[in-house]
## 1
Amino acid sequence: MCRIEQLLRQTIGLDADSIGSSSIQRTVRLRMRCLGLSALDDYYRLLTLSREEWKELVEAVVVTETWFFRDPQLFEALARLATQDCLRAHPTAPLRLLCVPCSSGEEAYSALMALDEAEVPAERLHLDAADISARALARARRGVYGKNSFRGKDLAFRDRYFQHTREGFLLDPAICKRVNFFEGNLLSDDFLRGKEEYDFVFCRNLFIYFDPAMRKKALNTIHRLMSPSGVLFVGPAELPLVIEHGFVSAGIPMAFACRKAASGHGRRDARVAAYKPARFLNLPPSRPIYKISPAPAPASRPAAVVARPGRSISTDLGMAQRLADVGHLEEAAEICEAHLRLAGPSAQAYYLLGLTRDAQKDSASADFYRKALYLEPNHYETLLQMALLSQKNGDSERAFAFQSRAQKLKPTI
């Protein structure tokens, strides 16, 4: 199994620890059963010989969770920067955007709709979107989405850009055809080699699945693809990771944006960030202005028990917390992992996993904390732990930033 995990790491950058080795093992065993194989060596040999089976495995392990206007302040910042910065500085040049990985298209289309609302001329905009999943790209090109792709209370944009059909919500074909979707791997040495640079790059919630070496390789490629004044948008928990590799924060609240370290745009970004959304979305009354709201927190699921040969494991996170408090770290970690398998991503589960790894002086704790903050950017306990971890690593500036965020959220007694 280690050889397969290594193959996934080298090819698509997937760090087995980021989703759990047990998850990869289950996926591999399922593929083996489908193919009638019983020996792991036989399956590994097939992976190295069959491009089709390799694609099947990749499709099964990649994470494609996304929705429209995820982290809405990001898209407000995009429209501000595009209209008040890029287009003014370059009145005739095209505005170039890249979304990688683009999954099933929600993020790329969100960017396009935000710029459309800000009245960026269609002829000025070029948007490329890449992913390693052929199935995700097929869904993106088709432009039909279910209810899970629309989260939050204010969905006026759906009425404007989508038609409700029997199959789902069909995106306006005029929007669909404006995005160039293609299959591509950010870790390939020739990814978009020789292409024009991009003004904006979306690479969100990918780096949390990479180990440091693969993360550095991906960021080197992104650095090559960005224009000198370009802006990179990442996930909420990824900004600290990116800043370690030649980027600086753009200073735009809740946009998780950064620039190349030598871009010299920090002062201008602060000015742009000061504008309020209503000011830049100054559209004619004839065109509806929609407000984008963040998605509500997912409803908690009841605790359950996962069957295992000869025993069962609770998925009660309260029990995991109690076990961790008395030093039963492995048992607590098992409960958290079982909860993630059964109930899906959970900030509290990742936070507790981080605690157990932290107590064991395992460097993987930081990755679990980052996942918790990705799911819940204002998770108070995780912010405190990240502050402590940053201080321990000698990064006082980042420790202060995490502590300040936690202080604003400090529960009142």
## 2
Amino acid sequence: MNTLRLSLIILSDSFAVCRLRADEDVPSWAFSGSFCSLTRAPDELSIVCPQELVPEGVQAVRGWRSLKVEGKLDFTLVGILSSLTSSLAHVGIVVFVISTYDTDYVFVKESDLDRAVAALRKAGHDLH
């Protein structure tokens, strides 16, 4: 049983996880919404943003929903993501995770959102 209790907010947007070439400039459409995460690695440029912003032809996996951990998380906390992802893995839900300086975002496929919410509530987390 999970002993760490977290409060999460279900974001209203549907998101896309995009892959561009590593040497591409960051496109302006990525910054048009209320959420954007960029990761430039030696072999790719990944962008996560609201899916309606992503132009046709961009390599992307669409249909993600996000659960945001409420509040600022201290860097000394242990087990934050484990407390969330283990509950979701137990019921076979695939996740994509982004951590920021302040908090964590757990993305699940839109078709799994209701099951994810139920699993997280069963584990003792508060979702709204």
